[in-house]
From TrEMBL:
<protein>
    <submittedName>
        <fullName>Maternal effect protein oskar</fullName>
    </submittedName>
</protein>
<feature type="region of interest" description="Disordered">
    <location>
        <begin position="28"/>
        <end position="53"/>
    </location>
</feature>
<dbReference type="InterPro" id="IPR036514">
    <property type="entry name" value="SGNH_hydro_sf"/>
</dbReference>
<dbReference type="Pfam" id="PF17182">
    <property type="entry name" value="OSK"/>
</dbReference>
<dbReference type="InterPro" id="IPR033447">
    <property type="entry name" value="OSK"/>
</dbReference>
<feature type="domain" description="OSK">
    <location>
        <begin position="57"/>
        <end position="243"/>
    </location>
</feature>
Length: 245
């Protein structure tokens, strides 16, 4: 039998070669299309970096300050900026909120979005309850819940009693009841609670209150204050705290 022409063999070989090339190209393309795309600069299989953890604030001597505008002013005096929160229409930093009541603080502490809590805290809350005529029984009940919550979760809790605010002279009786609860009950119920009595600094009654330790007017206006402690008052508060922490 006569052999096939060499040209035909070469054509067949080239045809087979092209077929193989096409198959290889097709396979490669299919494989590359099936692979998931990776973002530029991302290492395949690498874990996502952990979310940035918020730190408890404001901190002074390893203790987090908690409370209302009284503690907010103390934080500012210590060099912390307490920004205005447009969502709640008040200044806020951590667990300090200007205008905060005991009830509101309870809600914040139990909230899923509550700011982080430090192992050691200094808390003063209740002035707005007295000022807004919250029933004293309710205010004391709220304070009891706050102290129980903090005592369970913190290594050390320093509680300030409420100062005898001159502008709230008509409410001194309720203020006295509130402070009595803090001084007599909180320490007995919780071993990790310390109490700093503000009466030692500011006076205990309308007759003994030290007016020179309170702001006479609100900053930038002639509106009467006599609610918030001034710089001299805050300095004495810090001196008293230094004796227990």
């Amino acid at each position: 039998m006569a052999s096939e022409p060499k040209t035909l063999v070469m054509l067949l070989d080239q045809s087979e070669a092209l077929k193989l090339i096409r198959e290889q190209i097709g396979t490669t393309t299919t494989t590359s299309q099936s692979e998931p795309k990776t973002a530029v600069g991302v290492i395949p299989g690498a874990k996502k970096p952990p979310a940035k953890q918020l730190k408890p604030r404001p901190i002074w001597r390893e203790h987090q300050l908690i409370g209302d505008s009284m503690m907010g002013r103390l934080a500012s005096y210590l060099g912390h900026k307490v920004p205005y929160n447009r969502e709640i229409h008040s200044k806020q930093l951590g667990l300090i909120t200007h205008g905060q009541t005991t009830g509101r603080l309870i809600g914040t502490l139990h909230s899923a979005n509550s700011p982080p809590l430090a192992p050691k805290v200094i808390v003063m809350i209740g002035t707005n309850d007295i000022a807004h005529d919250t029933p004293i029984g309710k205010a004391i009940s709220n304070m009891k819940r706050i102290l129980a919550f903090l005592s369970k979760r913190c290594k050390e809790v320093v509680v300030l009693t409420l100062p005898p605010v001159p502008a709230m002279e008509a409410s001194f009786e309720n203020l006295s009841k509130f402070n009595t609860f803090i001084k007599e009950n909180s320490v007995l119920e919780h071993k990790n609670i310390k109490v700093v009595d503000m009466a030692v600094i500011f006076g205990a009654s309308t007759e003994t209150v030290k007016l020179d330790l309170f702001e006479k007017t609100f900053k930038g206006s002639n509106k009467k204050d006599l609610i918030h402690w001034n710089q001299d008052g805050m300095k004495q508060v810090l001196d008293a705290l230094k004796k227990v922490i």
